[in-house]
Specification:
elongated, alpha+beta, single chain, 5-stranded antiparallel sheet, about 400 residues
Length: about 400
Amino acid sequence: MNKLKIQVFSVIFLILTLFTTAIFCGFNMMAYSREYKAVERSITQAEKMGGVKALPNEGDGDFKPVRNMDEIRFVDITVYTVELDNTNKIADVINHSNNSVSDEEIKQIATTMISQSFQQSIGNLYFADYSYSYQPYKSITVVDNSSTKQELRNMLFYSLLLYFLLEGIIYLSARILTLRITKPAAESFEKQKQFVADASHELKTPLSVIIASADALESNPTEHKWLDNIKSESERMNKLIADLLDLAKSEEVDDKSEFAPGDLSKLVEKSALTFEGVMFEKGVTLTDDIQSNIIFNMNQYKLQQLVSILLDNAVKHSEKGGKVEIALKKDKDIILTVTNEGEGIPKGEEEKIFERFYRADSSRNRNENRYGLGLAIAKNICYLHNGTISAKSENGKTTFKAVFKV
């Protein structure tokens, strides 16, 4: 069971982590791409937006184009233009923003670009202090990345904090979801363990008696009481095995191969009639209120078994001179009820009585060869027919109610 929980937790945690990681990476990549394009755009604009004014050359009438770079201004980013002369030497440094860096530092950057013939370098905006664009014999554009670098780093830092916070939430959520998802499996596993333990216990007792009686019979062949013990315990084992097989069959909740429309009213009447002799011997009166002609798509054998289990349970828990009532009605749903007077269900155990091997009085049930499987079988039969079953005791009466959806 622990292995299943680990597997479920791992799958949930991995899926949610991958989803969160994708969002985290996507967000930061988009932010980086936006800033990268902004720097690239600033460089391009600085190169293209330089105004051109015509000044005559001395001695001839030709015109020499001169960039009017002093008029260009950038608000959100710090940009410099390093003008070059005809010999590709630094002629002037122009600041296009309010922020300023020393001209010497800008000149040093420009000299490096000229010496290494870099055409353009934006670099990693998380680490690079400057971005450049070099046009030989014309100009070098230098963009200060300080504010961009700080903004991207802050964004990365806070998104990482949020990411780890979300990972903590995901971890707790995965734990909770794992418990909720595996709860039915855990309950089923525990019930299976309990079932095996109870079945083994029930089989162990008669087997022990049979073995002991066989040993005693071997020592005293003339003592027939040992044979009687062996026969009695064998019958108990046979009854238990039959009940276990019925329980296993009743749990096949998807097996509707033997379903067919039938008259449920006649089936209930017929099942009730078979108990008249048993009730007469115990001094119990049977009354019925069965609505006629209720047609229902059902497995007739299993529903007859359901009625028999409920009536047998009612008779066994009725006092001498008591009364058992069976009723069948159809309104929005089909409702079958069996009520008996006498021993009631202990308070708070109305749900437990439908569990396997549950017995309120173990010693009494053992003497009657009853193993607490009947009502568990009845519950499974109801589920097979898309129905529910419940029980309650009040005012000296116990009522079992099965409701089938039409």
